[in-house]
Amino acid sequence: MKQLFPFILYLLRGRVLIAHNAPFEEMFLFHEAQRAGVQLDGFSVVDTLSLARATLDLPNHKLPSICKYLDISLTNAHQADEDAYATGLLYIELIKRRKLVVLNAPLISAASTKDIPARPSVALRPPKVRKGNTGYMSNLLAALPSEQLSCDSQADSRYTELLEQSLCDGQLTGNEAQRLADLAAPLGLSASRLTELNQLFLEAAYVSASSDGTITLEEWKGLDRLAKEVGRPDFFSKLQEGPLGGSLKGAKSRRCGNCQKEGHTRRACPELLNAK
Predict the structure, then answer these.
(1) Is residue 51 classed exposed, middle or buried when 0-12, 13-18 and 19+ CB atoms within 10 A define those classes?
(2) Which residue spans of the chain are classified as CATH 3.30.420.10?
(3) What CATH topology corresponds to 2-115?
């Protein structure tokens, strides 16, 4: 934690810190500063909990409850980045309702960026992945930072390899999703990078399925399952109408030239393959 404080102090200096139940958050911040031998000063604090209690007549004023009441998005409560973003939106909404002046913290100018301490390289704690209403992968992406924190050349290949292993049966289980999170977070992989890697994985699966010049109905179903598992359910929609596979309607009527059964081509006919 000690290596973080020069950067934290720079961000706090002359600014206003907004927090929900600020005294609780301050207690941890000052405790860690004391452990690191650092003096924290030079910033102000606004407590949105106190502001909400004075503004809104609600049964309770917990952050998730207030966000639900004000229709503020908070998908993963108690996830640090989501809570922070929601608290900022809550602050803006509360001051609008109370007709107060917005507290604008000074921006970092381009001329002063040379004075910013280097951002330390810190391994992120893996998030707990839940399936929810949108699936494991969507919730994993929502829990990761949007900014890439690592330049590890092996990070992409390690994630892709584990993703391939996890989806070899066409399904992503909770344990498999958690293993992906346990790998991606410490490596500093961002949500946007994982989205790109997931797309490359789907493209590779499509190339593999179409290597014989056609895609059967069963192969389309398998590709669609993969797309849904990585949070891209519509990824293959346009391709299914393209020249390689034809429409799904056409795929359903395709029959093997040998056994006349649907769902595979002559080249992939089990009878011919077993005969060999």
Answers:
(1) buried
(2) 2-115
(3) Nucleotidyltransferase; domain 5 (3.30.420)
Pick from 168, 163, 209, 159: nearest CA to 186: 159
Write the pLDDT tens digit of every residue in 111-158: 344 454 554 444 456 778 888 888 999 988 888 777 665 556 678 888
All residues at 6 or more sequence positions from 174 whose CB lies less than 8 Å from its CB, including other chains = 129, 130, 131, 136
Q: Tell me if 251 sits within 8 A of 217, measured CB to CB.
A: yes
**Which tens digits make up the pLDDT trace of 15-25?**
778 899 888 88
Calculate ∠ Cα 101-70-45, nearest 5°: 40
Q: Give me the percent of the chain exceeding a pLDDT of 90.
A: 20
Number of Cβ within a 10 Å radius of residue 231? 20
Distance separating the N- and C-terminal Cα atoms of the chain:
64
What pLDDT is stored for residue 118 in this prediction? Answer: 53
Number of H helices, E strands in the chain: 12, 2
Q: Is the predicted pLDDT of residue 43 greater than 70, yes or no?
A: no
CA dist., res. 247 & res. 271, Å (int) = 26
